[in-house]
Amino acid sequence: ENHRKYYHTYRHVRGRCVVHSGKRRHGALDIEKGERASLIMWTKSRSYRRTDEYKQRYDISRWNQGPADRICLSYTHDDDYKDLTPKPLQYRMKPRLTELEKEVKQKEKRWLRVCSDSELLEGEAKVLRLEQENEEVAVVRHRGEIFAFDDRCSHMGASLCGAGADIEDLGICLRDNNAEPEAVKTARLRDGVVRCPRHGQRFNVRTGENVKGGRLKQKIYPVRTSPNGLHVEVEVEVHVEEASSGAEATVTALQETAEGPRGLKRRASWLAGLICPARRDSTT
Q1: CA 135, 136, 142: angle at the middle one, nearest 5?
Q2: How much is the average pLDDT of 270-281?
Q3: Long-range contacts of 54-62 (CB under 8 A, 24+ apart)
Q4: pLDDT above 90 for 220
């Protein structure tokens, strides 16, 4: 019942190592300088893992429920990770929110330009990084169609396309892995499948589903093409500061889009003009 509760923080001393049981919930904050080395030793007994004693003692589904301290949450194991973790802290080993991140922000859906149509070649990917929203969107071309999905693998957060896309037809993937097409009911054999370089998880780029089924899946984003290039629809954060009169507002767009600072200023000015035309010059 206390598996997800905070117990102790060890502060490292040079020349010393820490030995602990991997069954305990554990983690480490990002280091600011120097190097860190980890040695992981796995000891497995298949016969012991089949016993009732093991199943009762190490009931993982029971461990990943109940009260939790945020610092102990795991995006790999906890289904409620995104519900309990503020978005600015997700997939990051940051101990706390900054004052800016604590501010309440409105969200709007916007189409952000990724690149020109000719820049995205067949089988390749572009990654749109939204720093303020803490999102990374991969955009790929497969069999002439454009698809966009969360670039962070839902298994352990690794980048799916940051080092280049590894995409193949679903039919080939199922054949090579001796899987049945029924494993993903909404799939098509010509659908593209992206492979995670870290642990080999495979996801359908059209539906976001794991080719083996189960709860792991990727978020899918709408895409469109225009003479101006390829665009993806995402939710961006807009900070609205209420003016003293209560009738006016100063709007600051917190998202640096693929268009750069000039595009950011132009978008913010346009949005402010819709909300408070009389104060257009107060927009930042």
Answers
A1: 140
A2: 37
A3: 58/23
A4: yes
**3-state SS record for 18-66:** CCCCCCCCCCCCCCCCCCCCCCCCCCCCHHHHCCHHHHHHCCHHHHCCC
Predicted confidence at residue 263, as pLDDT, reads 40
Among residues 256, 220, 233, 225, the alpha carbon closest in space to that of 108 is found at 233
Q: Is the full-model pTM beyond 0.90?
A: no
Average pLDDT over residues 87-103: 67
What is the phi-psi region of residue 208: left when phi exceeds 0, alpha when psi lies from -120 to 50, beta otherwise? left
Indicate the residue type of 206.
Answer: R
Tokens in use for 88?
């600015």
pLDDT at residue 104 greater than cutoff 70: no
Please report the pLDDT score of residue 273 as a whole number: 40
**What percent of the chain stands above pLDDT 90?**
22
